[in-house]
Specification:
- The protein is an all-beta fold and 206 residues long.
- It is built from 1 helix and 17 strands.
- A 5-stranded antiparallel sheet has the order 3-12-11-6-7, with no helix packed on it.
Length: 206
């Protein structure tokens, strides 16, 4: 079930902040890149920005030539496999269950050539695992938790560098939620400024 969310700006900085939302692959042994899933800009005070958090994903594969396979819908508990057809085309197919019910596995079934595995949510890139060799898997496991914070010079759909990630440390759990507002407060200039805070309000439970 999709979760309906609204970002609401009640901060003291007008519309100057850039708000970054992302997720972390909880499998720390899997070196996947953390991508800025959503960047909200120019949202004035008391204005809101609605968006949806789907539970399912889409997966696409790219390689050294910059070509992408069609996106394939996927969900936790599935394994996908990249294969090569007799004509040489690459196809991403369902290949049975994943190693665990709370993860998504993508296997490079080619005989040669490393691949990059792109994971999308609501049409936007949210996860990326590069250089997956033949016979190896990219494994994604995301808890229903959003990380959110204020940052600059971050582009939606691109990897976030470690310096920026260290400053974005607010976690919002979406477990059991059907809809909610994400309310930003704080900010401002001069001696009256305070740290930004993000809290869930107007929560509707599943």
């Amino acid at each position: 079930m999709d979760i309906k969310l609204r970002f609401v700006n009640r901060s003291n900085d007008g519309n100057q902040s850039e708000v970054v939302i992302y997720q972390k692959n909880v499998l720390t042994t899997m070196a996947s890149l953390t991508v800025a899933w959503k960047v909200i800009r120019y949202c004035g005070r008391d204005c809101y920005h609605p968006f949806v958090y789907p539970m399912d994903y889409e997966v696409s594969i790219t390689g050294e030539h910059g070509n992408f396979t069609p996106r394939l819908s996927a969900t936790n508990g599935q394994m996908l496999r990249l294969t090569s057809t007799p004509t040489g085309a690459r196809r991403l197919l369902y290949a049975g269950p994943a190693s665990a019910s709370n993860e998504l596995d993508v296997l490079n079934g080619l005989t040669q050539g490393a691949i990059d595995v792109c994971l999308y949510k609501d049409g936007r890139l949210m996860g990326l695992k590069t250089s997956v060799s033949p016979g190896q898997k990219a494994v994604f496991q995301y808890a229903p938790v959003l990380w959110i914070g204020v940052a600059s010079e971050v582009s939606q759909g691109l990897a976030i560098n470690s310096a920026v990630l260290s400053n974005i440390n607010t976690q919002l759990s979406l477990i059991g939620i059907a809809s909610a507002d994400i309310v930003m407060t704080g900010g401002g200039g001069g001696e009256q400024s305070t740290a930004y805070e993000f809290n869930l309000e107007n929560i509707v439970q599943v």
